[in-house]
Amino acid sequence: MGSITINLNVAAPYLSLQEYARVTGIPFDTCRGMVRDGRIIIRPKELAGGKVEVNMVAMLKDAIANS
Known about the structure:
single chain; mainly alpha; two-stranded antiparallel ribbon; 2 strands; 9% strand
């Protein structure tokens, strides 16, 4: 049997949490909980009150590793 090649494209390396919620169809408040419990990987914030940015590259790597 031959090998399988899968090509994946990440439209943007980081998405705001609100945009991530829109793209995935997951309610925003649920996404906030998923950030708190570690199911959504975010870019480290420089300031405590900084904007949450979902690390889409890390999320993709995690999905591949757990498939």
